[in-house]
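DATA SHEET
Item: assembly model
Revision: 1
Owner: S.N.
Input lines:
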Amino acid sequence: MKVRYILPAFEVLRDESKCVNCRLCERECANGVHSFDSERGRMIANDAKCVDCHRCVCTCPTGALKIAETKDVYRSNANWSRAAIDEIYRQAESGGVLLSSMGNPDTYPEFWNRLLINASQVTNPPIDPLREPMETQVRLGSGRVKIERDENGRLKTALPPQLELQVPVMFSAMSYGSVSYNVHAALARAAKELGIYYNTGEGGLHRDLYGYGDHTIVQVASGRFGVFREYLDAAAAIEIKMGQGAKPGIGGHLPAAKITPAVARTRMIPEGSDAISPAPHHDIYSIEDLRQLVMSVKEATGCRKPVIVKVAAVHNIEAIASGIARSGADVIAIDGFRGGTGAAPTRIRDNVGIPVELALARVDDRLREEGVRDNVSIVVGGSIRSSADMLKAIALGADACYIGTAALISLGCHLCRSCHTGICNWGIATQIPDLVARLDPDEGARRLVNLVTAWKHELEEMMGCMGINSVEALRGNRLMLRGIGMTESELRLLGVKPAGESM
Amino acid sequence: MLKEGQYRNPSGCAVSAVIDRSGKPMSGRRMIDSIAVMHERSNGLGGGFAGYGIYPDHKELYAFHLFFDDRLTRKNTEEYILRHFEIAYSSEIQTRKLPTVTDEPIIWRYFLAPLPRKLADSHLDEREYVARCVNFINARIGGAYVFSSGKNMGVFKGVGYPEDIGEFYRLDEYEGYSWTCHGRYPTNTPGWWGGAHPFGLLDCTIVHNGEISSYDANRRYIEMFGYKCTLRTDTEVMAYIIDYLVRKMGLTLREVAKVMAPSFWKTIATKSEEEQREEIFLRKAFPSLLVTGPFSVVVGYEGGIMALNDRLKLRSTVCAEKGDLAFVASEESAIRRIEPQLDKVWAPAGGEPVVFELHDKEASK
Ligand code: SF4
Ligand code: SF4
């Protein structure tokens, strides 16, 4: 007799009095949970296959469905959680490395929620964004200048190439292959409409999206998938991906199941084989090697495009960033350990790296101490969940933020964390045509535009409270933040005062 | 109690300034009369003046004004000064005892010339050499504070109402071609005289009314370039911004205004191609030196004064002219008090610098 060691984590609850047996849930659930029992004339569910993506719940016309975490419990044990036990069962079964997707969901401390924002009272007036201009534009790139004048004494105004963003936020790298074409199309359209940028990730740029090049950041990762002349030429900026917050120190793995002919063509790899990008760039074993790659990318693009270097937030991030700031790169992107992924080994996702808040504060301090902060802009990602997180990041010292998970949630993602299975009932992390078709790129673009526009308004409101009318004056303005419920060393590392302490 | 510099002390204030563009000297009495009108804008916790052209007999020398907590500090500081400068002349600054001005520190004046050998060995230009010595004393010698360090000019300040501070320093006995002054309304009680305004470095001084919201963004940026904001006042950080942009980067004061109080992007878009080119460049090159929140400043320097408001104009500034005379003040009444008949009176727009300079700038040197 085959014993099931792992018991279903979710229960599909169907209100029989509401269910009309329309069988829509059966079609909507690609995991095959729902089926019609013709003998008994009613719908039944196989709980074991459910991943709690809520697609059936959201589409059921009579509202008959609910998904609940199972009430069934193992004998309670403060040391051995259910997840820890299940993972052992799973490994004992498969002998393999555990895979996970989306960001680290564990209960680590988090800092955004422990930072409070200042407001003006009496000595300094707040500014009303409905009546006064508010500037949310930012520019990314090196700002290092020498003041020079021509023979008539006029300023010479040449500057290194910069990206101009209408709102200090961009859509972070998500590769075509890990997400669907429709996701990329929605991101591209939204970025253009918002006057910001989206990032292709390491999977190349689909032919049909070259038209959005002015709002596209293309990635050059260790696998060099889809990298060629036209790809670099099409982009507004080029990002060299050294690491990713969800999986610092390892490369990407796109399973063959997600490699359709179009994905293969875009990545310039054969169909039907896994696409594995190596852990290191094999031409970068040291910081001077990185400099060479930065320079060759610059040369290949006539020095007309900013180069971003993306790294994961790890223990030694200060020194790494300081090296990058001197490598010729224009922007450093730091991805925190909460950052999302389409697939990562569970142990790495859940245990490697540090929170982006700490990494950001330390890097900003270090670059200032060394007088090289002007060499680069800093972009941070890895769980920016709201405009308040974004504002706090800027006040800590970031120039702009990357959002990935937040963007996907706006497209319908319900954070079921099963992207690595290739079955995404929301048409996001999948290449199955029927599922992809569920995401309408125009509707998706509209939702993304709404999200970022709403954040922009909120940013304006909060800046107005502080009496600040330009993001430039918010950047690195740590006196506008106070920490609550933090230790002395956390406050010191973040460079903020405790709540209650005056200016 | 915490000393100024160990906490932020936002202040409301009054400012006033006058320049005779023909270079004719006028008595400090004028400024005292002008600032006295705005008594209500101060609260007796700080006042000060800067006069230009006041030391014509020593105009080749740096005039240092220092506060000392005690005589021992003075001795130590003088040792340091002697290692770096030749002291041409030094004495206690003559003051008038007033019941309203109390707890004054020991106040001395030194006329100094950098030691040529030391200066050559430092590989610094002379002004940078002097600035670093000032910074050293202020940051490292506890109980000593250099509050004035330019040539042929001087700052006079203390805790009290500005008109009383003017009497205390006997400014009616000084004559200069331009004067700026400041009455302070701090929200905390500073016991220390160094916290009063004007704030000066070399010949550049600032009087300021307002509370800037960009303070920490500006401070953390400017500290990358060797400045140390020890007073934690808005005035100090603005003085360093101006010093950095003018002296180290080589911008003109009008260009500095475009950095500190730039036009909004959408206003820039409506300007001429040449203006756009310049303003976009300046905003892009020095984004962290944009100053937000209310401010009205008067910058004094050798040969001129500049008035500048924040770009929303959240603090009042009035300018006026009468022949060679030009005035800036928080309120028109402060100008009318010393010059009832004016040729022209106007309120400059937010972010629009107003510069008044000597007709013959070279002559002031
Ligand atoms: S996997 Fe999703 S669609 Fe299927 S039953 Fe579970 S919640 Fe519903
Ligand atoms: S993208 Fe799809 S599969 Fe991944 S977490 Fe979101 S809903 Fe689940």
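QC remark: The domain at 115-498 of chain A is CATH 3.20.20.70 (TIM Barrel).
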